[in-house]
């Protein structure tokens, strides 16, 4: 049985099997520690019964007024544990936390070329809000989709009205 639990500092020494994937953004230890210190409730792992880390999600709460939202910074599942619904389970947990924090929506960025992830997010009722040109600094030819899902506080669903034109990373609030 898979356990979802809060991420701990020790997990940074155990998640290489999850991060060894070309579609997973890998950050420096200080980045992970910053998220753990500021938004610990948004940093969760999926762990197998034998203690192997199967995947994780890290995010944060940000914005102001009607732009107050939960943000998925990273979501990844180790290749051998994909197609088991773990990503959806981790996303659901982040959405619940965002609801409790009275967020209007949850957003995330995904590579335009990552068709599998885009389809999964669409199945979870996320929409493509806008295209962000040259979002990935390590790959200037790769754009991102900013995908969003409205939460219950956004009664009028204003947060998910798609923009009709692409933006650049520096234009993102």
TrEMBL record:
Q: Which UniProt keywords apply?
A: Acyltransferase, Cytoplasm, Nucleus, Transferase
Molecular functions per Gene Ontology: protein N-terminal-methionine acetyltransferase activity
Record GO cellular component, one term: NatB complex
Q: Which InterPro entries match?
A: Acyl_CoA_acyltransferase (IPR016181), GNAT_dom (IPR000182), NatB_acetyltransferase_subunit (IPR051646)
Task: Spell out the reaction equation it catalyses.
Answer: N-terminal L-methionyl-L-glutamyl-[protein] + acetyl-CoA = N-terminal N(alpha)-acetyl-L-methionyl-L-glutamyl-[protein] + CoA + H(+); N-terminal L-methionyl-L-asparaginyl-[protein] + acetyl-CoA = N-terminal N(alpha)-acetyl-L-methionyl-L-asparaginyl-[protein] + CoA + H(+); N-terminal L-methionyl-L-aspartyl-[protein] + acetyl-CoA = N-terminal N(alpha)-acetyl-L-methionyl-L-aspartyl-[protein] + CoA + H(+); N-terminal L-methionyl-L-glutaminyl-[protein] + acetyl-CoA = N-terminal N(alpha)-acetyl-L-methionyl-L-glutaminyl-[protein] + CoA + H(+)
- Where does the chain cross the membrane? none
Q: Which SUPFAM superfamilies match?
A: Acyl-CoA N-acyltransferases (Nat)
Share what the entry says about its subunit structure, partners included. Component of the N-terminal acetyltransferase B (NatB) complex which is composed of NAA20 and NAA25.
Instruction: Tell me which family the UniProt entry assigns to this protein.
Output: Belongs to the acetyltransferase family. ARD1 subfamily.
- Cite the PANTHER family for this sequence: N-ALPHA-ACETYLTRANSFERASE 20
Protein name in UniProt:
N-alpha-acetyltransferase 20
What species is given as this protein's source?
Strigamia maritima
Q: What is the lineage of its organism?
A: Eukaryota, Metazoa, Ecdysozoa, Arthropoda, Myriapoda
């Amino acid at each position: 049985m898979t356990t979802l639990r809060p991420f701990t500092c020790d997990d940074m020494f155990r998640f290489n099997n999850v991060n060894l994937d070309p579609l997973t953004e890998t950050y420096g230890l200080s980045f992970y520690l910053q998220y753990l210190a500021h938004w610990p409730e948004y940093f969760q792992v999926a762990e197998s019964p034998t203690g192997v880390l199967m995947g994780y999600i890290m995010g944060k709460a940000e914005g102001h007024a009607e732009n107050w939202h939960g943000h998925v910074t990273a979501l990844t599942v180790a290749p051998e544990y994909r197609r088991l619904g773990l990503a959806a389970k981790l996303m659901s947990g982040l959405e619940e936390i965002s609801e409790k924090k009275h967020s209007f929506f949850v957003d995330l960025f995904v590579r335009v070329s990552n068709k599998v992830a885009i389809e999964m997010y669409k199945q979870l009722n996320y929409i493509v809000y806008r295209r962000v040109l040259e979002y990935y600094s390590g790959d200037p030819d790769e754009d991102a989709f900013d995908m969003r899902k409205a939460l219950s506080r956004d009664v009028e669903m204003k947060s998910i009205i798609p923009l009709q034109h692409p933006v650049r990373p520096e234009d993102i609030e």
